[in-house]
Specification:
This protein is mostly helical. The chain has one helix and no strands. It has a domain of about 35 residues. The longest helix is centred in the C-terminal third of the chain and has 36 residues. The radius of gyration is 32 Å and the shape is rod-shaped. The relative contact order is 0.06. Keywords: Membrane, Transmembrane, Transmembrane helix.
């Protein structure tokens, strides 16, 4: 049986190219507006129930 002592074996893998990143689906302006809308919705999810309860309590106190 032949045993090769060649230091260049096995051959090195060729350098691999990284695939290009996928194109953006949103522009930076659209992404900014989307983040603002999400932030506003999260803020209103916290503030609106408190504000609604305060307004209802004030109306009940004013009429009652």
């Amino acid at each position: 049986m032949f045993v090769p002592f060649d230091p260049d074996w096995p051959p090195f893998d060729p350098p691999r190219r990284t695939p290009p990143p996928p194109p953006r689906r949103l522009s930076s302006e659209q992404e900014k507006r989307l983040m603002q809308a999400i932030g506003l919705n999260l803020l209103l999810a916290i503030v609106a129930p408190i504000g609604g309860a305060t307004v209802i309590g004030a109306l009940l106190g004013w009429w009652g």
